[in-house]
Amino acid sequence: MDEEDTDGYKEPCNQCAAVDWGISDEGRFYCRSCHNVIERTREVVDMSFTSNSNRISRIGNKSRIRKSERGYIWMLCEGFQFILQNQADALLRLGVAPQFKDDVLCQMWRLYLQKSQQGYTRNPIRNLRFRGAALDSDTDMDSAAESVLSDNFTDSGSVLCSSAGSNAESSSDWLGSDYSSTGTSASWKRSRSLMTMKKTLALIHLALVWSREALTLSDLLRLVKEGHVPYVTAYEDLPEEMKLCGPDALLFHVESIPSHRSVHKEAQVLVQFLQLPAFPPIIPEALLHPAPLSLRYLTDANLPDELHRWVCVLMDRAGMADQKRHTLDGGLRPILPRYDLQAAALIIVTIKVIFGLDDHTEWDLSNKADSHDDKADMFSFRKWYKLVQAALVEAQQRRDQDTARKQWKGKKLFFVDKRDRLIVTKRRRISENVQMCLKRLSSCPAAVHYVGPSSFQFCWGDENGSDGPSLHHTKLDGVISLSNGFMTPLNLNYWHPPLRPCNPRTCVSHYPSMEPTLPRSFVWLLQLFSFMLDVEAWYLFDEVLEMERRVFGIKTPQIGQQVETRKWLRTEKTNATQTGDPVKKPRTPRKGRNGINI
């Protein structure tokens, strides 16, 4: 069909001098060799004008857009509302409780609309880009937080209501605040009120924490990366009448997954911006509590189950058994805990207490465990390292391959200006042709097996497809001795890296400079749990240092020190003699030889 229309045009291409013309879907001539698009268009016969006329009409550069084809004027918050609804529906399909969407996320979204004055107010903002709008101060709406997010969430909102079509007066009555636009705030920051794609994940994380769901922030980001929760191509699910155009459309277009640290920071900002009341307490039975969460990570890392009781001992000594430490309170404790990092850091500190992790003690203890008569049931650090290291290398390769195969571009064309449509179409055509050529030249890739979402990175057991045999049943008798009715680790020394006093606002981490001097076994353990949580190693290292300060009472030592745990373990003996339980909370720490609480 193209040959008939281009047969009469024999002009060479200005770019490659070839005479091989084709016609695009828009009716423009383009060179098949270099994909250069020219201004010439196809001539068509318009037979609908009159049957006795052969009048020729030409497709012009400026296409006529009918009024019925245009999208209606819509607010940016409406687009993010649809995206939040799709993300919440995806989590519901994965097993999250239905109350998460209707009773928690919906209420937080309504509170955000009121705080940013986009809805549930008598004078909502109608400017798409939030420029030059009158905004009231935060103190005018303090009472709304208590009414919207009460302890019981008595209001049963079923859907995410649209702010553009809501009644302002009835919304104010529902929120229980006599709000009126009476003043302006020149210091209002636009970045705090304007919603972004990253803030949608932060808002969902806060709703999950309020609901006390078993999904940590690292789990949420992993579901986003695997495509189970829409994020990168979430704009494709917007209704057809919502036309993305202009610079504001870039708010919905993302080409990367945010890091754990950035999303947690956004969630902390939202807590202060929304002025949320106290969250429901994280009781020990809640899956976000360090006790059950650490047991989950021990299972994923193929560590013995007996190690969990020692994790609980250190958790009591660090004062983390108290539910108030893990409960977010906007007034008393406004810091949002990093539940996943705290549990992983607690496990790393426990392994350091028992095995040393100084590149000597752990291997000596492994030699003793291997020489034991019942070594099949004994936990050996060397055996565990070889098993997990092989699985870690394969899992890292699979993750890298999945990242390389991931399509970061959506199926729908995305362009800010309509004049860029031809350029975007040409680039898409070129990329598709290059991909087709590479598929022809390359060998057929191995079949990619679809794996459903899971909370675990590894699979241990004797089944087909597992990463290796399970070590959960192994015992710690080779590294822990039973004497006089109480248990004592054979390792009695604990090394601590040096801590440098610095300003947390200007200094991020000293891990890059300290990493070459740290023991290799400790660095490998950091990399293992960093892979499991999909965070940076320095980010987890800082959490380990904070956990060591809590456990041993170390605040800001200038140089690395050795902490002797013998006297601390004797307190275990005293409590065990009185109660019969060898793993009870020790007595109040006292000063040791080095001036450190032990």
Automatic annotation (TrEMBL):
InterPro entries: Rrn7_cyclin_C, Rrn7_cyclin_N, TAF1B/Rrn7, TF_Rrn7_Zf. Residues 165-185, 567-598 are annotated as: Disordered. Residues 585-598 have a biased composition (Basic residues). Residues 256-440 form the Rrn7/TAF1B C-terminal cyclin domain. GO terms for cellular component: RNA polymerase I core factor complex; RNA polymerase transcription factor SL1 complex. Residues 8-39 form the RRN7-type domain. It is found in: Nucleus, Nucleolus. GO terms for molecular function: RNA polymerase I core promoter sequence-specific DNA binding; zinc ion binding. It holds the Pfam family Rrn7_cyclin_N. Residues 165-181 have a biased composition (Low complexity). Residues 80-239 form the Rrn7/TAF1B N-terminal cyclin domain. Belongs to the RRN7/TAF1B family. PANTHER family: TATA BOX-BINDING PROTEIN-ASSOCIATED FACTOR RNA POLYMERASE I SUBUNIT B. This is TATA box-binding protein-associated factor RNA polymerase I subunit B. The lineage of its organism: Eukaryota, Metazoa, Chordata, Craniata, Vertebrata.
